[in-house]
Amino acid sequence: MPEVKVVVAHSERATLRVGDVFLKVDADQARTDVEVAAMAMAPIPTPKVLWRKPPVLALAAVPGTALGRLGEPSTASPAAWAAAGAAVRKLHDAPLPPWTGRSVDELATDLDAECEWLLANDVLPTDLVTRNRRVAEAALRPWTPAFVHGDLQICHVFLDGDEVTGVIDWSEAARGDALYDLAILTLGHEERLADLLAGYGTDVDVDVIRGWWSLRSLLAIRWLVEHGFDPAAPGCEIDVLRARM
Question: Domains of the chain (ranges plus CATH)?
Fold first, then answer.
């Protein structure tokens, strides 16, 4: 008898695993609409949609093992990271989805609000916020839109050996900055960026990727705290910010 395992659960959404089936329950059906549409468009392996009955989406498990997890060293080989980079490049070269993501102006407004909250509530030292706010400026520039995953965490990319077998969790997919995906995939694993770029196959502005590391971490901390996660865990968002010092 398969067990019911809680993969993630908070006030916005929950994911359960029963055998080889994932059941995703989302309060916002627009996110599920995006996920289903993005998986249908993506030119790389994605989970098979088994059925959908709002608010539940049933997906088949993808084979293989996650590239790694935030806060833990990745044991994947350089070739596996390069394969992940090649898959991300294939996605970024694909035709754009019809919907857009957050604009530069929206991100800048959100960043101002989150930095103000971090300081007003003494969550982080002033110098840590100020330094990373400055680093984040590199990401706040015009970009050529690409088909981006939008939440390309290291645990969302699965491989069998050095072959990508699936990329999961597409609810944030949109038109956006290609370097954002590269930054999220290497968040907390900065030492693997060169391996990823070896497969991605093009010159990138590493200062912009560093900017996204800071920007994403500053934007995420309040949400993580309010939803029961710990951004101060070793190797996670606050350590990413400290690395910029």
Answer: 63-243 (3.90.1200.10)
